[in-house]
């Protein structure tokens, strides 16, 4: 199948939409699909065998349409669409190419259980973060993994950082790093691969303080690591976190103080943390990235294709 993936974010790689696009692209190419990625910014001409089309805010629809006409995709998947996504949607419509836009209730990202599991937890590292040997030690380590840029997200995180008995660990970069340090947080600017997975498995709870997060792989990675999640009931978290079974969900109409109260509840109850942690890994055991991408192709992409095209592609897969 020829597939166009359209994303506003392809770098930095820790942005949720960028991570989803990279994971999906890698597996689609590995499965033999012809993939072109339309992304904002500048960069290399290819990514893991997929062709890249780089755009900016000033790129006209005509240029996007021309590039899409040259790649001739069977389907165009808009990942978390904004400006570029709207241009690609218009171009695809003019060319008669079916488009797919999936909300979190329609499709969830995957996770690789071999890369994210409780065995990566580092007790010595946790003791340092929790200040286990300090007078106020033994703190709950609450982790946030993502960019430190959005003011409302930083405000919620700072409120958590000031909770008694809680140490905030923020893994990410951005202008808000100093604000969080001033509130008492530990900020780790760079962590990737195994180091990032180790950090994630070592926190006591993952925080997802964004209210409008369409795709968030880190939520599934935390659950696979046996780490419960405190999140707003939106996006990926609303779809995969089970309230009081694998995490705590905060109504989206509530503010930062309500979010912090849910974190404080976990800090005050080791028994609740144990219950949530036990259920976390089991809840995502059947949601690998391979399964998630297979669902994209066999269910969502196939449903968008005309019946004749879908039948032809199915025939090509027969032995």
TrEMBL record:
Keywords carried by this UniProt record: Glycosyltransferase, Transferase
Domain Glycosyltransferase subfamily 4-like N-terminal intervals: 17-101
SUPFAM superfamilies: UDP-Glycosyltransferase/glycogen phosphorylase (SSF53756)
Lineage: superkingdom: Bacteria
Entry GO MF terms: glycosyltransferase activity
GO BP: any one term: carbohydrate derivative biosynthetic process
Name of the featured protein: Glycosyl transferases group 1
Organism: Nocardioides scoriae
